[in-house]
Amino acid sequence: MRKSITLFFLIAIIGLATSQSSIVEKLKSSLQKPTVSKDSIKSSKDTIRQEPKLKLKFYKKDANASYYHDKFNGKRTASGVKFDNNAYTAAHRKFPFGTKLKVTNQASGKSIIVEITDRGPFSRGREIDLSKRAFMEIAKNKGIGVMIVTIEEVID
Q1: Which residues have C-beta within 8 Å of that of residue 151, sequence separation ≥ 6?
Q2: pLDDT of residue 43
Q3: What is the pLDDT of residues 49-86, one digit of tens each?
């Protein structure tokens, strides 16, 4: 009886050791972070995609960017569409509606592509108003309301 119990425990320990190594390998592979190159951007479909052939036209460096307050959510923009704080949109005084811009946070290096759907900002010294989602996507510090960005126009 004692030999069979010892044999059972020995088999169980060997089984655990082999399955434990495979479990450890599975955990290691699932914990590895995917590598994202600097050419990666966040698209409006919420997925990271590679855009190595994106044609950009430089517009402005050291521009101040802010984001829309929640009270504007659902209201009409100057282009006529309803504003959605969860979309990747922006307001600019000069760019035509529908223009796509690449906005890069200079502190974090993160970029986002937004579409101009509104006029503004109307605060002095600010160049662009981003939707809250777009702003938070590239913000280094989520508690700030203004950041320094580089603005580039996406050329089709």
Answers
A1: 59, 60, 61, 63, 101, 102, 103, 127, 128
A2: 46
A3: 455 678 999 999 999 999 988 889 999 999 999 999 99
**8 Å CB contact between 121 and 149:** no
Q: Say if strands 128-130 and 89-91 run parallel, antiparallel, or are unpaired.
A: antiparallel
- Residue 116 forms beta bridges with which residues? 90
Q: What does the block give as tokens for 110? A: 């993160």
**Selection from 41, 66, 55, 28 nearest residue 146 by Cα:** 66
Token output for 28: 């290691």
Give me the pLDDT at residue 52, please. Answer: 61
74: left (phi over 0), alpha (psi -120 to 50) or beta: left
From the centroid of its chain, how far is CA 23?
32
Q: Is 36 helix (H, G, I), strand (E, B) or coil?
A: coil
The two structure tokens encoding residue 32: 């590895």
b vs e for 132-144, b when ≥16 Cβ sit within 10 Å of the residue's Cβ?
bbbbebbbeeeee
Query: Residue range 134-149: average pLDDT?
Result: 90
